[in-house]
Design a protein that fits this description.
The protein is of the alpha+beta class. Helix content is 21%, strand content 31%. It has helices at residues 2-5, 52-57, 112-120, 139-145, 156-159, 164-173; strands at residues 11-15, 28-35, 38-43, 47-51, 70-73, 77-86, 100-103, 106-109, 126-136, 149-152. Strands 1, 2, 3, 4, 5, 6, 7, 8, 9 and 10 form a ten-stranded mixed β-sheet that branches.
Length: 195
């Protein structure tokens, strides 16, 4: 299949309706690595019930942002591992050599010092993500060939989108697909995605 052969990170993977796995149903995944050995990405449109301030309290880091902002679920692999996505243009004095810009307008870090700095004055475009999504060698290509995922551009507006279902719909729309026209291949596919 052409899409599978052209898959290059960074990109977005948009779940098609036949994906019934609760971790990935109607998800949008920011694919950050795709190699022969496997692939890695972060679900970007799932919130957890855990406020960021609660996570940072456990690390003795003060959170100066909205106390109700919740962490995101990044995937089922290593849910204890935190990663932070943010817009580097909204942050001063953060070392992008240590962090890394995935696409213009989206950087990632896993360093506690960076997290402490971001917590002092959280930018509007910030996601604390717990866990990640991982695929073994050839697994993601197989899923693409089954048409489980649609590939979309890694757009910062989608990556930092506020609502889960709206982000999924906008990601589909970015490649010319109307979510309302997709067939519902699975029971319960019409259910909403939690924010």
């Amino acid at each position: 299949m052409g899409d599978a052969l052209e898959l290059k990170a960074p990109t977005l993977l948009v779940a098609m309706p036949q994906i019934s796995d609760p971790f990935f149903q109607r998800s949008v995944v920011l694919l950050v690595a795709h190699e022969d050995e496997g692939s890695l990405g972060f679900v970007i449109n799932r919130r957890t019930d855990t406020p960021i301030r609660e996570i940072l309290d456990g690390m003795s880091l003060p959170w100066h942002g909205d106390p109700e902002v919740r962490a995101n679920f990044g995937g089922p692999v290593q849910p204890e591992l935190g990663s932070v996505l943010y817009d580097p243009a909204e942050v001063e004095h953060l070392d992008l050599d240590r962090a890394g810009e995935i696409v213009p307008g989206v950087a990632i870090t896993q360093h506690a010092a960076d997290l402490a700095k971001l917590a002092e004055g959280p930018p509007a475009s910030l996601r604390l993500i717990l866990g990640y999504a991982g695929w073994n060698a050839g697994q993601l290509v197989d899923e693409l060939e089954r048409h489980d995922w649609i590939i979309a551009p890694a757009d910062p507006e989608l990556i930092f989108g506020q609502e889960a279902l709206a982000t999924w719909r906008k990601a589909l729309s970015s490649v010319g697909i109307d979510a309302e026209t997709l067939p519902l291949w699975t029971a319960g596919a019409s259910g909403s995605v939690a924010n």
